[in-house]
Amino acid sequence: MGTGDFICISMTGGAPWGFRLQGGKEQKQPLQVAKIRSQSKASGSGLCEGDEVVSINGNPCADLTYPQVIKLMESITDSLQMLIKRRLDAPFLFLEDQSHPPSPQHLLGYTSLLIATLANQLMG
What we know:
Helix content is 27%, strand content 31%. It is built from 3 helices and 6 strands. The relative contact order is 0.25. Mean pLDDT is 83; it is low at 92-105.
């Protein structure tokens, strides 16, 4: 997918999350966000169509097939954290809720998720 920014997306409250994925190892395509439902948890979280999903709750996605990703998503009951890669040329995103700037806890969550993802890749 080339160069881009890594972003941590967090959602709580359980499914439905409000997005659809496409791609996977068996399709020889990176796992990407295909569609975002308006007024959903995903649309409020900052997730964008075309984002590449690097990890889900610390589980790297590069070697997962689409059915494995669906199984992983179905196992998540309350809190979803996704490390995504966004192309540098992606359109600027206006969040639905701009009243809260990123908190130190959000930034710490990003760091923890990135470390968990990298650790899983090195050990897997």
